[in-house]
Amino acid sequence: MIGWSAAAGVVVIALGMVLTPGPNMVYLASRSISQGRRAGLVSLAGVALGFGAYLLAAAVGLGQLFSAVPITYDIVRFAGAIYLGYLAWQMLRPGGRSPFEVRELAPHSSARLFTMGAVTNLLNPKIALMYGALLPQFVRPRAGAPWLQFLQLGGLQIVVAVTVNGLIVLAAARVAGYLRRHPRVLKVQRIAAGATLGGFAVKIATSARTA
Q: Global pTM?
């Protein structure tokens, strides 16, 4: 069983990561506003699947895979950077829109919502590095089977991330309503969000491998 100190450390780290603007937040807010809370929650289920996939991969040796075959890390990193760049361009291009801006979009099926939620998370290399390099630091050999500890720690992170993202889904409509009544704030928010995602894309593409 994991100790209280390890559990607390993972919870703090998970909160810090999920509260940092990123592709999950942008996608969930956008979909919740354009298609409703149910669509946002279905997308969130896909995001949760992405977390679970990384957790299971890390439990069987994601960190070792990155070390043994460094190109796999680069593939994840560059794919994530390209995807973030695409999201940024959608907001910053002429006629671009904020993810919180109310607009009519063709509704997606539940299957597509779920799939896009999973893809958005799977293309986030920050999550891969967290499971591959960060969580293992909280595993203590004397506390029991390492793989079981890893699953427990990862489970805590998923609970925190899904809870916070769920609140984002539920609050997205209210945020959108406020921004609709304040168009200047909406424009600033759109530019800031696009620039943030663009910054993430550049940072990910140019960052050196640390683990």
A: 0.69
Residue-wise DSSP of the chain: ---HHHHHHHHHHHHHHHTS--HHHHHHHHHHHHH-HHHHHHHHHHHHHHHHHHHHHHHTSHHHHHHH-HHHHHHHHHHHHHHHHHHHHHHHSTT---TTS----PPPPHHHHHHHHHHHHHT-HHHHHIIIIIGGGG--GGGS-HHHHHHHHHHHHHHHHHHHHHHHHHHHHHHHHHHHH-HHHHHHHHHHHHHHHHHHHHHHHHPPP--
Q: Is 96 helix (H, G, I), strand (E, B) or coil?
A: coil
Cα–Cα distance measured from residue 23 to residue 25, given in angstroms and rounded to the nearest whole number: 6
Q: What is the mean pLDDT of the chain?
A: 79
User: What are the domain boundaries of the chain?
Assistant: 4-69+101-180
Q: What is the arithmetic mean of pLDDT over 55-61? A: 79
